[in-house]
Amino acid sequence: MVLIPLSGKVAAGRSAMVDDNMATELMKYRWYCNSKGYAGRSVNYRTSGGRRTMRTIYMHGDVWRLAGRTIPESQELDHINGSPLDNCLENLRLATCGQNQHNRKPQKGSTSRYKGVSWIKERGKRRAQITHNGKTIHLGLFTDEIDAAKAYDVAARRLFGEYARCNFTP
Fold it and tell me: How many CA atoms within 13 Å lie on the side-chain side of 122?
């Protein structure tokens, strides 16, 4: 594993991890860290109309292509451990957009530190819920936040399999 230093306002001394055999090729470029935490590089190119424009190439995509793999149009790359700066090949997998969403971290600003759990002030309890195929599934009300998080984990493993991001390891 090799660490590639990142530039830019968001980078603040951060580095991206890549496999040893890809580091030399990737270090040919200047990489920055975007506001969502992904390593990218800007490419200047001409459109069919002759105008110049910028495009971002993400490091995880370059790693996938350097390994001789392609990304089908209906899929995207998912960082298995949820770290957008861990671009080692073993941490990347193909996923549909929906599968990639299942692997998201808990949202900031939530009333709970656990994914799928929220505080219901009127009831004085924690609600566990999960969204699957665009539908929200109510998993129950709980007096204990950890019990609600465990209920979410059970449902996530059942519904999302290997793409589930759980609150606790099994």
Answer: 0
The percentage of the chain sitting over the pLDDT mark of 90, rounded to a whole number, equals 72
Domains detected in the chain:
2-95 (3.90.75), 102-163 (3.30.730.10)
**pLDDT digits 0-9 by tens, 84-121:** 999 999 999 999 998 888 877 777 767 898 999 999 99
Helix (H, G, I), strand (E, B) or coil at 14: coil
Task: Tokens for 149, please give them.
Answer: 């998080």
Q: How many helices (H) and strands (E) does the chain have?
A: 4, 10
pTM here is 0.75
**Which structure tokens are listed for 100?**
């990639």
Work out the burial of residue 23: count CB atoms within 10 Å of its CB; fewer than 13 is exposed, 13-18 middle, 19 or more buried: middle
What was the pLDDT predicted at 109?
A: 67
Please give the residue that has the higher pLDDT: either 169 or 112: 112
Tokens at residue 78, please? 């998912």
What is the arrangement of strands in the sheet containing 39-46, beginning at the earlier edge strand?
32-33, 39-46, 52-58
Q: Which residues of 70-86 are buried (b: 16+ CB within 10 A; e: fewer)?
A: eeeeeeebbbbeeebbb
